[in-house]
Amino acid sequence: MPYLLLTLSAFIWSGNFVLSRAMNATIPPAGFVFWRWLVAICVLCPIVLPRLRKEWPLVRANLKLVCICGFFGVTLFNFLIYTAMHSTTAINAALVNSAIPVFILMFARLIFGQTVSLRQHAGIALSLAGVATIILQGDLARIRTLSFNRGDLLVLLAAVAWALYSVALRRYPQGLNPFVFLFSISISGLLFLVPFYAFEIHSGALMSTNTPTLLSIAYVGILASVVAFTTWNIGLRRVGAHVGGQFIHLMPAFSTMLAVAFLGETLHLFHIVGIALILTGIVCATFRVAKTA
Fold first, then answer.
1. How far is residue 137's CA from residue 263's CA, in Å, rounded to a whole number?
2. Residue 99 dihedral angles phi and psi, to the nearest 5°
3. pLDDT at 259
């Protein structure tokens, strides 16, 4: 079940990745993050408010964790990604985003002394090889044509932010309802975002209100925020960030399948090889944990 939850998160976020690129000229980044999480809070209210009084002492005792997760997972990661989509390509973003599992392993080891087995290292290598196969379209010569810009640096910083968020979940308080936790970090994240959004409005960057923008906000607010964050948090708590982080590598594979299904793009052999390598790497990285669970 944890692996299915992590896979679902990666699938939903693949759609969010494509959507943010498509809407970058219509929805400013801070506004996108603000309205996304405001929708998420509204959706969570009927679920959380009846429980909040009972669980508030547990939330208050862990306000430091709530603020850390709100800042890195809600505010910083999303703001950097949505800003980066204005100045980088989807290929470059997917390439840099694939560094997240590596950062997760690094921070898990530095902060918590988490050990990583040889099998898990092999799984990471296989998954990265699969991602590279898809991005380079099976041709190593394409490395020469890749160029990087300001947007790529922002995606790299976002990857660091998401890794810190994922590793921080190790301190998740036992007994706290996952929806109450998500509600708490959502409010925390919005508070951190207010200065960015205020500056954006002051500079005249406003969101156009039309059907595409409203549907986009609904998708990222309900699916990419409430559903994907909840399944990711639950999955990571059960298998650990150093294992669950490998499922980020599914995003390029899912993005390929979505493009074939909805954009009419052609499925090539390098797609199949890349997806096979990613799946093999994930199985390799998670097998030991599943075996000893």
1. 18
2. -80, -10
3. 67
